[in-house]
Design brief:
The protein is α+β, with helices and mostly antiparallel strands. Helix content is 24%, strand content 42%. The termini are far apart.
């Protein structure tokens, strides 16, 4: 009986240790789930910087962005022909612990990857990669 109890405890500990990285990824994805607008003033080389849409941005002629929903729904915000913002619906899926695949429903553009360089303190830094 003791051997069975020890094996059961060991299994629980191993399972907890194995699940921990997944919990970190889930927490990061929850931080991602909101509307982000491009803070192009802060871009560095090939890394684009985004801030929540509630951020006090300096004046700009328009800002692109995107919104992530927890159920995999995605909206890409582009500048419309009339200088407003146009939302394009799509989906996001996790490729690995730092890369998302973006698929737009209208298929006007091919799928692309967003590599999450960092996500902290309401600043999202990404690198876009075309497929």
């Amino acid at each position: 009986m003791r051997l069975f109890t020890m094996l059961a405890c060991l299994s629980v500990l191993l399972l907890a240790a194995t699940c921990k990285p997944g919990a970190d990824t889930t927490m990061k994805l929850q931080q991602l789930e909101r509307t982000w607008l491009h803070a192009h003033e802060e871009d560095q080389a090939d890394v684009s910087v985004y801030r929540p849409n509630t951020y006090a941005f300096p004046p700009s002629r328009g800002r692109t962005g995107f919104a992530f929903d927890h159920n995999g729904l995605f909206t890409q915000f582009d500048i419309a022909p009339t200088d407003g913002i146009e939302g394009r619906k799509g989906r996001w899926t996790v490729e690995n612990d730092h890369t998302l695949r973006i698929t737009l429903d209208d298929k006007k553009d091919p799928d692309y990857l967003l590599e999450i360089v960092s996500l902290e303190n309401d600043v999202l830094k990404v690198r876009r990669k075309d497929l």
